[in-house]
Amino acid sequence: MSSHRHIRENQALEDNAIVAAVADPSTTSDGALLGLCGDQLNNDFEHQCFEEAVRMLGAELLAPVEGDIGPRMLRIPGIPRGRFLPHQVWGVWFIVERILADRPPVALIADDMGLGKTHYALATLLYLKYIVDEAAAGRALPCLGGKSVTELEVVPWIFGADSEVYRRPCIIVVPANLVHAWERAVQSLIPQTGVQLVNLYLSRQLNHTELNYTSDNPGRGKAIHLISYSSYRARYKNPDRLQGCQWGIGIFDESHMAKSRTTQTFDSLMKMDVPCRIQLTGTPMHHTVDDWVPQTEWLFSQVTDQDELNSYGPRPLDSAITGAKRGNITLEEAYGLIKDIAWPWTIRRWGETKDATGQPLVRIPELEQHDIRLRYTPMEANAIDQWITDAKGNRWNAIQTVLHEWRLACLTMDLPDNDVSSEDSETGDGLVLHRQSWNRNDFHGGPAFRWLSEVFVPKLLGPSVGGVPNKAVILAPLPGQASYVHWFLRTFHAGIHPIVYHARVASRDRDRLLQEFASLDRPAALILTPALGGTGLNLVAANHVVIMQKFWNLNEQRQAVARIHRIGQRRSPKAWILHCEGGVDDRAEELHQSRGKFEARIMHGLIGQKFSYMELMDARATRIRELERVQSTQGGDAVPGASGTEGGDDNGGDVE
């Protein structure tokens, strides 16, 4: 943190207020902006940070309009169509201040899922482009203390030595399934900015000679290029495509996707010419600490300041983690080091900030989460065992095939040998071979489908909340399973309108299906696969999310739940995590627990929360003993159960 962020004595807030433009009826100067600082923040340090962000950006408080997702929305100069929440304004200034202070222009936006990271990353990009243009025109800027560049004794690099870098076009790299969502987000903010979107995901023939900024083609610097990780990787390898491209600012969504040094994606990101890098990911705590180091390597790949690298780069981060793993330092010492290393470039605080009443400053309705324990009948358990025995018996079957058959058998009894797991991540139009219908008189869905019929469908058809019909997002791991759920609801529960959304759905139809789901005035279910619906989508039209089968990766499961538990949710969201004992879900739960046993306490150092490390170890040991006891007393047979039992919150591996 820079020195001028130190806590100072409270002064009359009016002394530091930014008076909104009287000529603009959409803004207000009635003191509500000051009240946001003085009345809501109960932490002096955060109070000061937010007040400074408003003042230095020149932000204005906007008059409320229907559809606002918060009680107070603000405008940031240079983004006329933007309406931002207070924590997003602070996030923009966090990065901008770092750049104005001539620190390495890198940042990790790692706040909680659902807090609007997309919009404040885009706001940062647009604001940086705006101030570069304003400075070049000789105008005064609030971020420079109301001065123009010519009035400064020391000119920040962004307006001097690095000014050409920030005149380059920008690039946004995202997972393939999020290209359309990011396209919508960019288009919502760029009107009246002079910036244009170029979708490289669709414009496959463009190369560096047509994309790079030059003095003869300055308009190219006003472009934002959008592409998926897989497309960039493929086209970077071709010298006639994206090799040689130069960008000024890059946004990298779901940056944890590039976490292996041996992949072509990692290599292409390391070599990418984009000095200012902004990574977006779920809270680092949800990923392993080992994964975090390679992400930091390509975040800092164009930083040349050795003092910065030695103090805040990937090497000291790796050293702290390695020291803890080898027992050279304690876990407490490790997370203290990590906090010191990452804090200057990591945004991870507003999810925990409380207002004066003790409530979260960023208000999202509290999630009600249920762990539903289900059991197979002896006949079902025997059928699953036989399917897996057959899969293992084929000596040509790879381990992936066996795992795939196991997943199919444990959720949808009628699917083994009738599904493939591959999804075309690039186009979404690849052939997915699986059945689309079954005989309603002899189908066999298993315990999860019995629970859907007996427990969940009646909830969806029950009383609406606030006059809005109940809607659900249902996630099944594989496309065949999603089609099976769709068929099941369509066939047996006519009161529910089911919509299936997976890789076989053409890209051009996906937005239409999401809009249809949001606008329906009757109970509905959107059935997704994690490959397309587990991240990035905003599905707050639903107030229920069902995880039909636990994910191998706990963070991906949390990401899926966050599709409905996010900013904009106006009802109390409910998550239903199904766990069929004696199958895939047992193994997934073990992975959830073992994954967190080392990383959790270290990563919690970033957000200041503490918990007992031994409690986590004891919980895992207790679960293992329970499984051993069940196997010994029941001889491996599962006890039949149709509707299952609620086990309260889903704490399998949840280390928060």
TrEMBL record:
Residues 98-302 form the Helicase ATP-binding domain. GO terms for molecular function: ATP binding; hydrolase activity. Residues 628-656 are annotated as: Disordered. The keyword Phosphoprotein does not apply. Residues 647-656 have a biased composition (Acidic residues). It holds the Pfam family Helicase_C. Gene3D superfamilies: P-loop containing nucleotide triphosphate hydrolases, Tandem AAA-ATPase domain. InterPro entries: Helicase_ATP-bd (IPR014001), Helicase_C-like (IPR001650), P-loop_NTPase (IPR027417), SNF2-like_sf (IPR038718), SNF2/RAD54-like_C (IPR049730), SNF2_N (IPR000330), SNF2_RAD54_helicase_repair (IPR050496). SMART domains: DEXDc, HELICc. Keywords: ATP-binding, Hydrolase, Nucleotide-binding. It comes from the Eukaryota. PROSITE patterns: HELICASE_ATP_BIND_1, HELICASE_CTER. Residues 460-628 form the Helicase C-terminal domain. PANTHER family: DNA EXCISION REPAIR PROTEIN ERCC-6-RELATED, SNF2/RAD54 FAMILY MEMBER. This is Helicase ATP-binding domain-containing protein. It comes from Tuber aestivum.
